[in-house]
Design a protein that fits this description.
Largest sheet: none
Number of helices: 14
Oligomer: single chain
Strand content: under 5%
Distance between the termini: 24 Å
Number of domains: 1
Order of helices and strands: HHHHHHHHHHHHHH
Shape: globular
Length: about 290
């Protein structure tokens, strides 16, 4: 009986890992598609559009569940959605003052922050394999990003704050999301981000529906696969997978972006980028095989 229960647990964990890998892949694909087709859309127009599409996708998949949202669902979904929105907003602000390469590296520091905070909360030390995976992940990410120099400016500090928000989001989703239906929680998060993004559009950008229409096909693709599906899969997977493994596996996003940019955008991959990719791949394999 115990072996049967363990097999069921292992199967659920394997499925959660697969869902997180798919999430990281579609995030990477969305990044490349946005860079190729819709990089001229104002930032909050883009966020409002993709998260509205994502919310509608989840609503259409399970309308009855969405109509049963209660106060607890609304509270948790709004908190997580707001935290996720702040993460996106900080990236936007930080990019005004720092490079894209530094942004990619610093925003992924949550892979380091998550196990540190988790260890403090649990009053325990990270496992040996967790430490090895984190080290390889950060080394690989550093090589991929191609950062030169170690000085920090105002933009860098904003991106580090973004990584802190991302850390809080991963930990809170793991803690608060376990008792709430995946569809309801996913919908509420995305709808919250849509509302906040739309407010930012009205406050800081001139509302321009034509620019949305011009890129509607790509926005639909990004909204469905890179937003609706990924938010749902992450919400579902984090009920099983540990926060530490989530942070490490999500480094598959810059890995995917690197290679899809090479295939789709004809960007060049340097030797250190390939070496960095190897380190991240090893870190992902360790995280999965050792069930971090």
């Amino acid at each position: 009986m115990e072996r049967l229960e363990q097999n069921k647990t292992d199967q659920k964990l394997a499925l959660a890992y697969m869902e997180l890998i798919i999430t990281a892949f579609f995030w990477g694909l969305a990044t490349v598609l946005m860079k190729k087709h819709i990089d001229k859309i104002p930032t909050f127009h883009l966020l409002a559009s993709r998260f509205l599409v994502g919310a509608l996708v989840v609503f259409l998949l399970a309308p009855k569940k969405i109509f049963t949202i209660d106060k607890k669902d609304l509270k948790v979904g709004t908190i997580l959605g707001t935290l996720n929105f702040v993460t996106y907003a900080l990236i936007v602000l930080g990019l005004n003052y720092t490079s894209a390469s530094k942004t990619g590296f610093l925003a992924s520091l949550s892979v380091l922050f998550v196990p540190i905070v988790q260890s403090i909360i649990n009053k325990s030390k990270p496992s040996k394999w967790t430490i090895i995976s984190i080290f390889l992940s950060l080394l690989g990410l550093y090589l991929i990003s191609g950062i030169n120099g170690t000085s920090l400016n105002k933009g860098d500090l904003l991106i580090i704050l973004c990584a802190c928000c991302s850390t809080a989001y991963i930990l809170l989703l793991s803690k608060l999301g376990k008792e709430i239906d995946d569809y309801r929680l996913s919908f509420l998060q995305m709808f919250t981000i849509f509302i906040l993004s739309f407010i930012m559009v009205l406050c800081f950008e001139d509302l321009n529906l034509q620019v949305i229409r011009n890129s509607s096909s790509v926005l639909l693709l990004v909204g469905i696969l890179g937003t609706g599906l990924t938010t749902f899969l992450q919400t579902k997977a984090q009920k099983v997978a540990s926060p530490e493994s989530v942070g490490i596996i999500f480094l598959g996003e810059p890995l995917t972006t690197l290679f899809l940019a090479y295939v789709i955008l004809n960007e060049t991959i340097l030797l250190k980028g390939l070496i960095g990719s190897g380190f991240i791949t090893i870190a992902l394999i360790i995280a999965i095989l050792k069930k971090i």
